Amino acid sequence: MREAVDLASARLERAGVDHARREAMRLLARLLGTDRGGIVARAPETLPADVARGFGALVARREGREPPQYLFGEEEFFGRVFAVDRRVLIPRPETEILIEAVLSIPLDGAARVVDLGTGSGCIAVTLALERPLWSIVALERSADALAVARANVERHGVRRRVDVVEGDFVDATRFPGPPFDVVVSNPPYISEEEWRGLAPEVRDHEPKGALVPGPSGLEAYRALAPVALEVLRPDGWIALEIGYRSLDGARAAVEAAGFHAVEVRPDLRGIPRVLLARRPERGPTPFPVS
Fold first, then answer.
1. Is residue 24 scored above 70 in pLDDT?
2. Inside any domain, residue 70
3. Has residue 71 been placed in a domain?
4. Residue 22: its pLDDT value, please?
5. Residue 94 — φ and ψ, nearest 5°?
6. Based on the structure, what is the number of domains in the chain?
7. Is the domain of 111 the same as that of 43?
């Protein structure tokens, strides 16, 4: 087993994978259903042929800089495990700050929420699980991503309260029923220039459409802000994840749409990560109920 890890580490190091030995041990541990300590304890053992083949296949994929989350088809988010693959963006710890921001909004009892660009569905599902009285519309334009979102809705047993729907941001204006209390979104916010400099795990494997909305990286904020104003009840909330270069553009987009009381929350590194704002109590009437 030690020899297999040594060989895998050398391959991953040549491929430019950070912390190559630790990564090799993590791959083997996942394959064997153990942890790093288990690998160390079993180091003198010889890998069975079938395990060696499986390990070799995983190492080859990781050598190609495929993210570990795609190798195993899942990632943890807000204490729960979600299915992920190349059809969706991998959930990040930073997005948990967006969840915490939405959960901090003072809403009484039942609330109606729309998640614009739901991707894997991790935001919509998490909010449904954390707030059992809330109903959520999860809107996504990618049919491939929708399949993953629906699988996660089923996996976590929230199908009755999370409505997964195919559509672009503007399609949120077409839902019958009362206006929404909260619009939440982790939209694409990376510019074309930034995308070209990303690590291969991200640039070459995660869906570009979930990362890059256009040349500037601000196009999604400009598109969704007026839609959010239209679909929210008076004094309703918008909660957006923002990138480290996105604050000024995102703030300008929501303020231009008519939102006020803008609040920015940082991540653990002090980088602005979440933007909260409110729809005015008075102003244009939300979309008509049909």
1. yes
2. no
3. no
4. 94
5. -60, -30
6. 2
7. no
Q: Which residues of 181-197 are buried (b: 16+ CB within 10 A; e: fewer)?
A: bbbbbbbbbbbeebeee
- Name, in order, each residue with C-beta under 8 angstroms of 225's C-beta and a sequence gap of 6 or more: 238, 253, 254, 256, 257, 259
| 159 assigned to some structural domain | yes
pTM, two decimal places: 0.92
The residue written with tokens 């791959």 in the block is 27
Q: What is the pLDDT of residue 290?
A: 31
DSSP-assigned beta bridge partners for residue 83: 74
Same domain for 8 and 59? Answer: yes
* Residue 89 CB burial class (10 angstroms; 0-12, 13-18, ≥19): buried
Q: Are residues 137 and 181 in the same domain?
A: yes
Domain identity same for 218 and 125:
yes
Domain that holds residue 11: 2-64
Estimate to the nearest angstrom the gap between the alpha carbon of 290 and the chain centroid.
31
Whether 120 and 206 map to the same domain: the answer is: yes
* CA-to-CA separations, 258 to 157, 216, 242, 277, in angstroms, rounded: 37, 22, 19, 10
Q: Which helix (H) or strand (E) is 143 found in, with range?
A: helix 143-155
Q: Tally the C-alpha atoms within 13 A of residue 128's C-alpha that lie toward its C-beta.
A: 24
